[in-house]
Amino acid sequence: MHHNIHKDFISSSIKDILKNAVYASAGIGNGIQTFPLCDYIMQSVFIKMTGFQEQKMKCICWEIATYDYEYRRDFTKTPLGECSRYNDKNDIYKVLIKQIENYDLDFNEIKNAINKPEILTTTISDIENIFSNTNLLVWSQKYFFDFKTIFNDVRETDFVNEKGSLFSSPLLQKIYKDYLYKHRNRISHNVSSYQQNLPTLKTLIQDDYKYNNYFVYFAILVLIDEIFIQLYNKYLTMLNSI
Q1: What is the residue range of 188's domain?
Q2: Is residue 3 a part of any domain in this protein?
Q3: Which of 108, 238, 224 is nearest to 166 (CA)?
């Protein structure tokens, strides 16, 4: 049996951050005077979630490098970076798939080993359940409605459907790259402090503006988290079988 020092962290759910935010904000009510808090709380939760996931990606790489000497050589040569871009996560996805394939499993067997329908349905239902009857939802009704509409069109074929692509859906990739990642950079590099926070009318009438939505970001981060937890657990099973 291999000793995996990061196992508990990698297997822990990013959804705990959302639950803690709901608990923390439950006592402040939802009167109009509390509205300015909403963006502050959502922003804090979002940046915590992106940081958590970036750290998890690094831990997965460290774990693989511990047992695969060939990967370790490449890993020590090329700096990992922040692991926050879509391409970073996609590269780590491909590495994990390749590691599992080393144990004579083909990609279809790997794909069938992770429960994609469950990942998708629980991602949506858990976010709905975590936020239902909360002041965070009262503050953000329209965004919550848009999130449900957008994710109603996501299918299990949109992720882990190809060996080289974490998201096979161009829409999920677009939301991650053009909205989630850019928003993460705006907050973490504090560029919003010298930009106008309010969108222009022209921006608001663009259909794409609906993707600029914390609930959508949370759902995508949870989806990625669940995929990596299941793939990592499959990798561990194969590793411990030798």
Answers
A1: 12-239
A2: no
A3: 224
Q: Is residue 16 part of a domain?
A: yes
Its pTM stands at 0.90
What sections of the chain are H helices per DSSP? 7-11, 15-25, 35-67, 69-77, 86-101, 107-113, 116-131, 135-139, 141-152, 170-174, 181-188, 201-205, 214-239
pLDDT of residue 197: 52
So what's the pLDDT on residue 193?
44
**Residue ranges, the chain, pLDDT below 70:** 1-4, 29-30, 33, 191-208, 242
Task: Name beta bridge partners: 167.
Answer: 159
Cβ contact 53:221 at 8 Å: yes
Whether 173 and 89 have beta carbons less than 8 Å apart is answered as no
User: Is residue 89 a part of any domain in this protein?
Assistant: yes
What letter does residue 199 receive in the DSSP assignment? P
> Considering only CA atoms, which of 22, 54, 14 is closest in space to residue 41?
22
pLDDT at 195: 47
pLDDT of residue 134: 87
Backbone angles phi, psi at 200, to 5 degrees: -75, 160
Is the residue at 234 inside a domain? yes
Q: Would the CA dihedral through 190, 196, 202, 204 be positive or negative?
A: positive
* Count of domains for the chain: 1
pLDDT of residue 3: 59
